[in-house]
Design goal:
By secondary structure, the chain is an alpha/beta fold. It has three domains: 14-60, no CATH class; 83-327, Pyrimidine Nucleoside Phosphorylase, Chain A, domain 2 (3-Layer(aba) Sandwich); 334-419, Aldehyde Oxidoreductase, domain 3, CATH 3.90.1170. 42% of the residues lie in helices and 16% in strands. It has helices at residues 14-22, 29-41, 46-59, 63-75, 103-111, 131-135, 147-156, 170-180, 188-201, 222-238, 261-271, 277-293, 301-306, 309-320, 351-363, 405-412, and strands at residues 90-94, 117-121, 159-163, 206-213, 242-249, 257-259, 334-339, 344-349, 377-380, 387-388, 393-399, 416-419, 429-434. The strands form four sheets. The protein has a four-stranded mixed beta sheet with strand order 1-4-5-13, sandwiched between helices. Strands 6-9-11-7 form a four-stranded antiparallel beta sheet, sandwiched between helices. Strands 10-8-12 form a three-stranded antiparallel beta sheet. Helix 10 links the parallel strand 4 (206-213) and strand 5. Helix 5 (103-111) packs across helix 12 and helix 9 (188-201) crosses helix 10. The longest helix has 17 residues, at 222-238. The chain starts with 13 loop residues before the first helix and ends with a strand. The protein binds uracil. The site of uracil has 5 residues, from helix 9.
């Protein structure tokens, strides 16, 4: 009789792990690391992982479990390092919103102070836009860079905004796809470990999180957004990444442009020392946070927007990725303007309604493989708190043709409101979260 090699014996059982979490228990480190690894290898089935995700959604996880889960997802793929750059690295992550183009002026602004900003970004899905989609409105601009190109650009220019490669946290990619179809996206431990596994694997020294709340945010409720922010700040800190978060209002769209090319145009206005007040305020607030974490708390951020240093860094960043910063951006061939039916104050512009309308115009995509229309979007002519007169333009929708206008206008029904008294102003940056440990 010949010897046979026994198949490897798995050290844990997925059903035990699921039952423990289902009954409100704590998963031991070894079992949790195994669960993620075995899922990535295909040994733990999708149905089992989905049941586990639901148990986490219902019963939560302790801080230590979230740290182990994040660590296991990082270990499923490559881990980048910019240790040889000779300058500090700091990144920003936004949980996503409508008109949120802040990364575009922010990355070159921070880089203007000699700090490296490795910004691995994504594409838009649903009503929130994607940074790469916006930048691809610039003729020639290229999102895909090799790790070597990224490192060279960080050294020479200081700022890189590019596509995240598939090698970072592949376990998260599989798990996210499963959560998407099993009603388990909303679990804070899963969101936090998903976002932070990719950010920590990216190898940044420091990270500033822009966690949004309000109608256009992924996490609408302020208290839940705060819990998510705290969880992510703890995770970053536990992993040796200096991390802070700002909780920012996403009830109304940011700035006046919602789309792709129009958001690039608005970002360039900010880099030229102008632009809408809310976009400037948030860009400056996030830049201060990033520079403080990078050891430059006294940097004159507004000065770099005024005197062209940030604009110089932007031009070099776009050129390094084969984009032409002087090329004309796509403009909408067809437009339709909605005017105020009476005198009054703009009480409300609902970020979610405007986000869905821009998406229906073609600025966003319904499936990951769909293309976006770069000229499609919405330009606002007034913001909440502004006084308008009857007949004054409120906003303009646009795109390459008018075939999508009716559906976009449908989603704007009830998404804006005029009133007789000015609405109460609420702060854009509601709270700052730093680690307490
Ligand atoms: N973004 C992510 O990367 N992961 C989540 O779980 C939610 C938002």
């Amino acid at each position: 009789m010949s010897d046979t090699t026994p198949s490897a014996v798995e050290p844990f059982d997925a059903v035990d792990v699921i039952r423990t979490k289902r009954d409100g228990g704590r998963i031991d480190e070894g079992a949790l690391r195994w669960m993620i690894d075995a899922f990535t290898r295909g040994y733990v089935a999708d149905a089992q992982m989905a049941a586990f995700a639901m148990a986490v959604l219902l019963n939560g996880m302790e801080r230590d479990e979230i740290r182990v889960m994040t660590d296991a997802m990082i270990a499923s793929g490559e881990r980048m390092s910019f240790a040889g750059l000779g300058k500090p690295t700091v990144d920003k992550h936004s949980t996503g919103g409508v008109g949120d183009k802040i990364t575009l002026p922010l990355a070159p602004l921070v880089a203007a102070f000699g700090v490296a900003v490795p910004q691995l970004s994504g594409r838009g899905l649903g009503h929130t836009g994607g940074t790469l989609d916006k930048l691809e409105s610039i003729p020639g601009w290229r999102a895909a860079l090799s790790n070597d190109e990224m490192t060279a650009q960080l050294r020479d220019v200081g700022a890189v905004i590019c596509a995240a490669g598939s090698g970072l946290a592949p376990a998260d990619k599989r798990l996210y796809a499963l959560r998407d179809v099993t009603g388990t996206v909303e679990a804070i431990p899963l969101i936090a470990s998903s976002i932070m596994s990719k950010k920590i694997a990216e190898g940044t020294d420091a990270l500033v999180l822009d966690v949004k709340f309000g109608s256009g945010a992924f996490m609408r409720d302020f208290d839940r957004a705060r819990e998510l922010a705290r969880t992510m700040v703890e995770l970053g800190t536990d992993s040796g990444v200096r991390t802070t978060a700002l909780l920012t209002d996403m009830d109304a769209p940011l700035g006046l442009a919602i789309g792709n090319a129009n958001e690039v145009r608005e970002s360039v206005e900010v880099l030229a020392g102008g632009g809408p007040a809310d976009v400037v305020e948030l860009t400056v607030a996030l830049a201060r946070e990033m520079l403080a974490l990078a050891g430059r708390p006294d940097a004159d951020v507004e000065g770099a927007l005024r005197d062209g240093r940030a604009m110089d860094a932007w031009r070099r960043m776009i050129l390094a990725q084969d984009g032409d910063p002087d090329a004309p951006l796509p403009v909408a061939a067809e437009t339709h303007t909605v005017v105020a039916p009476r005198d009054g104050y703009v009480m409300r512009l609902d970020a979610y309604g405007f986000g869905v309308a821009a998406w229906r115009l073609g600025a966003g995509r319904a499936r990951a493989e769909d293309p976006v229309l770069h000229s499609a979007g919405i330009d606002l002519h007034a913001k909440p708190g502004d006084r308008v007169s009857a007949g004054q333009p409120l906003f303009t929708i646009g795109g390459p043709d008018d075939t999508r206008f009716a559906r976009a206008l449908d989603s704007l029904e009830g998404a804006w409101e005029l009133g007789d008294a000015a609405p109460e102003r609420t702060p854009l940056v509601r709270e700052r979260i730093a680690s307490t440990s």
